[in-house]
# Entry
Amino acid sequence: MVDRWESAGAADPLLMMIRSAGTSPSAAEALAKFFATQASGPLAEHLTTTLGCTARDATDRAAAIGALILGVVTSRYIMRNGPLAHADRASLTAWLGDRLQRLLDGPPPPPLAPALDGQP
# Structure
């Protein structure tokens, strides 16, 4: 993941969507759709089928992972400020890998919101 972002140019479509999402409802909708179909949804499905997470736990873990990734991308490639922005690639990869692994393997996070439509 770090390699993907490190090689992305300023005109990278995903980076442009992230930059625009705060001011453009259509960009925010496109970004949300992208993450739901290309990242969070498939990850939650994998966590449910492969690791045996409940649907609720898998959805919450995927949301936490997405938030972490968007936060890192925003800090490093948009704001370009703080320790995440100034870390070398190897340090960032090690730090991010550790954080992501904890979100995947650690105890389930507290629920983010009441279950919708009878989902666990």
The radius of gyration is 15 Å. The CA atoms of residues 75 and 81 lie 6 Å apart. The mean pLDDT is 86.
